[in-house]
Design goal:
heterodimer, A: alpha/beta, B: 347 residues, QueA-like, nine-stranded mixed sheet, six-stranded antiparallel barrel, 8 helices
């Protein structure tokens, strides 16, 4: 992607693409010449971002809803004519303000799991045909799941989020084991603490100067995607 | 045969009727499919995902309720929003298509309001129910409208309503099919791993499988409609490798046969407009994995390219006698061709 190939630009779908890291990734990948489709829940935001970024494809959908998954997958593949890279970025924090697990409602844990584990599972499965087709054609195929240090370390009050991100990280590793033979690579990346709406919900009043800019993290994520596609076995 | 009324893609007890090159017939479990393939063979499936092609709405000039079934398209381009479509009158899939009332008379310029979609009849295609339909609006909005408002084409023999996930095969990729290329229901990722372990290659083509039946004899006689397809460079290369080493090409479904016969196995895009039947040279295809088809179905004609009628008659009798399940979610047939293979690239 650093060397833009206009004849064969990579085709990327990003969930949670209208704010934070997702939006920064839409911009970064578009800047690098990729063809980009993004997914988010709010029609107004999706239309606004799509208008501001000509050539991108905005799709309204909620990855936590089973009924939305195939509709979203259909629109991604239709808009891009296939798919090389899926970025599962949309995340739910669980309860806000953050709460001790003992104070967390079951429904908040369920929503975190629906958004952070089941959603990426379902969307990856629905798009696996497109991704493996891309791998067979020698274009490469990558699924990048956005992770967190909360997937590894046990932080008090991050229970719903941490447990769901740990599950996503482990699932990502198992997907990778099983699908390496089909030519699909799975990456799990922790972008660090960023100045994003999600972080502001979790830690209100954090000093933005102590946080990473999402644009910086987006460049690293885009580099990781490039590297994974380049090292793809033919 | 009995109708497979439950929409389960891979029932554990699915069966496989195998018809060998010399016309011998054997019964097997579909889970043993890989055992009928040899190292060096190449399995090719259609990876088209299925569109929710059934759109309910109103024929604005008359105010009459209608169901539009998108049935064909001339290319895969996302901006190509012109479809051929079959229009039914009031009612839904619970009524057999044969018994559905006709649509109101349709004329060029008629506007069809289909949920969030607005379609204009561009022309009537030689039959009152078959029209060219053009959707207004940016392509992304039209695909979003189809995704939201459309439902998969339903079948009256099923015991429940089909959702999109019921009709997407495990390998479903580009959403261009109007009815599901259901022979590929038999494939799962474990099976693809088994093939690899046996030294059998796997590749895909994409063909926009069109509508399979309308319940209208005059219209059904025109099926299949023209279907755009694409053969990837990697698939054409896999075909050449298989032919070079003497492997057989096994097509998963009639749609793959159609694409391979039309393309001769060469890479590229095309529009399959031919019919396959008794006497059609199969060129690159040596065998077909298919659903079970009865002699009165249009797909049955494809079988006649593979085997003599007397062999097929014996196979039909075996399917009937052993109560094989039929239709989209039914059992399978592995049918080897009695034709001598013609090398790829031959005229």
């Amino acid at each position: 992607m650093n060397h833009i190939n206009l004849m064969n630009p990579i085709r990327v779908a990003i969930t949670g693409g209208t704010s934070g890291l997702g939006l920064a990734l839409v911009r970064e990948l578009r800047r690098r010449g990729a063809r980009v489709a993004f997914v988010a829940r709010t029609r107004e935001r999706v239309d606004h971002i799509a208008r501001d970024h000509p050539g991108t494809h905005g799709i309204v959908g909620d990855v936590a809803r089973k009924e939305d998954i195939h509709r979203v997958a259909l629109q991604i593949s239709a808009a891009l004519g296939g798919l090389d890279v899926l970025v599962n970025n949309a995340s739910s924090l669980g309860p806000t303000p953050l709460a001790l697990l003992a104070d967390t409602e079951c429904e908040d844990v369920a929503l975190a799991l629906e958004t952070n584990v089941l959603g990426p599972f379902r969307l990856t499965k629905a798009l696996l045909g497109a991704l493996t087709a891309s791998a067979r054609e020698g274009r490469g195929a990558v699924v990048l799941n956005i992770s967190s240090d909360a997937a590894i370390n046990a932080y008090a009050q991050w229970g719903a989020y941490g447990a769901s991100k740990a599950a996503l990280r482990h699932m990502s590793a198992i997907w990778g084991e099983e699908l390496a033979v089909e030519g699909v690579r799975f990456l799990s990346l922790d972008p660090g603490d960023m100045d994003t709406p999600l972080h502001a919900l979790a830690v209100p009043g954090a000093d933005p100067a102590t946080l990473r800019r999402p644009e910086t993290a987006a460049r690293e994520v885009a580099d990781a995607i490039t590297a994974a596609l380049i090292t793809e076995p033919a | 045969m009995i109708a497979a009324a439950r929409p389960i893609q891979r029932p554990f007890d699915a069966r496989l009727l195998v018809i060998s090159r010399n016309g011998a017939i054997a019964h097997a479990a579909r889970s043993s499919l890989a055992e009928f393939l040899q190292p060096g063979d190449l399995v090719i499936a259609n990876d088209a995902a299925t569109l929710p092609a059934s759109l309910h709405g109103i024929h604005l000039p008359s105010g009459a309720p209608i169901e539009v079934r998108l049935a064909g398209r001339s290319s895969f381009a996302p901006e190509d929003l012109r479809f051929s479509a079959v229009v039914f009158g009031a009612g839904d899939w619970r009524t057999r298509t044969e018994d559905r009332p006709p649509s109101p008379p349709l004329a060029p310029g008629d506007i069809l309001a289909l949920g969030p979609l607005v379609g204009t009849v561009d022309g009537v295609l030689g039959h009152q129910r078959l029209v060219a339909l053009n959707f207004d609006g940016p392509a992304d909005s039209v695909w979003a409208g189809i995704a939201q408002h459309g439902r998969p084409i339903q079948y009256a023999y099923l015991d429940r309503t089909l959702a999109l996930w019921d009709v997407w095969t495990p390998i479903a990729a580009l959403p261009v099919a109007f009815e599901t290329p259901s022979a590929a229901f038999a494939l799962d990722w474990r099976f693809l791993g088994t093939l690899r372990g046996r030294g059998v290659e796997f590749a895909t083509i994409t063909l926009a499988a069109g509508i399979s039946s309308t319940g209208d004899p005059a219209l059904d006689a025109r099926l299949p409609l023209d279907e755009p397809y694409r053969v990837p460079v990697s698939t054409a290369a896999a075909i050449r490798r298989a032919k070079t080493r003497g492997g057989r090409i096994v097509a998963v479904g009639t749609t793959v046969v159609r694409a391979l016969v039309h393309s001769g196995g060469r890479a590229g895009e095309g529009v399959a407009d031919q019919r396959i039947g008794a006497g059609t040279p199969l060129r690159v295809v040596d065998a077909m994995l298919s659903g079970t088809h009865a002699p009165d179905e249009s797909h049955y004609q494809v079988l006649r390219a593979f085997q003599r009628d007397d062999v097929l008659t014996r196979a039909d009798a075996a399917l009937e006698a052993s109560n094989y399940r039929t239709h989209e979610f039914g059992d399978s047939v592995l049918l080897f061709s009695h034709q001598d293979g013609v090398p790829t690239g031959s005229p």
